[in-house]
Amino acid sequence: MQWHEIREHYPHQWVLIEALEAHSAEGQRILDDIAVVQHFPDWPAAWEGYKSLRRKDPPCAKSGF
Questions:
Q1: In the chain, which end has fewer C-beta atoms inside a 10 angstrom radius, N or C?
Q2: Residue 63 in domain
Q3: Residue 50 CB burial class (10 angstroms; 0-12, 13-18, ≥19)
Q4: CA-CA distance, 26 to 40, in Å (whole number)?
Q5: pTM to 2 decimal places
Q6: 24 vs 31, 32, 36, 46, 57, CA distance in Å?
Q7: Number of domains composing the chain
Q8: How far apart are CA 14 and CA 39, in angstroms?
Q9: pLDDT 10s digits, 2-61
Q10: Residues paired with 10 in a beta bridge
Q11: Residue 65 and residue 36 in contact, taking contact as beta carbons nearer than 8 Å
């Protein structure tokens, strides 16, 4: 999906996304294809969902994230 499609499908919601395809240009990361992992009604719920996901699948130490 593209960002504009996500905004159409999930208006006025917070979304947790995963970049399926991305590239760098002029010092910025450009997301070419995005998947919605979860959607939430507000930022506190989104933050809890993000933290829960990170506990289940922590990032690789080499990735820097």
A1: C
A2: no
A3: middle
A4: 32
A5: 0.74
A6: 9, 10, 21, 26, 25
A7: 1
A8: 6
A9: 999 999 999 999 999 999 999 999 999 999 999 999 999 999 999 999 999 888 877 665
A10: none
A11: no
Cα(9)–Cα(25) distance, integer angstroms: 27
The three-state secondary structure class of 62 is helix
The residue length of the chain stands at 65
CB 24 within 8 A of CB 42: no
- In the numeric block, which tokens belong to residue 14? 């917070």
Count of beta carbons in the 10 Å neighbourhood of residue 4: 8
**Domain-located, residue 48:** yes
Residues of the domain holding 44: 3-57
- 31 DSSP β-pair partners: 22
AA identity, residue 54? R
In a domain, 8, yes or no: yes
Residue 57 DSSP one-character state:
S
At residue 61, the pLDDT reads 53
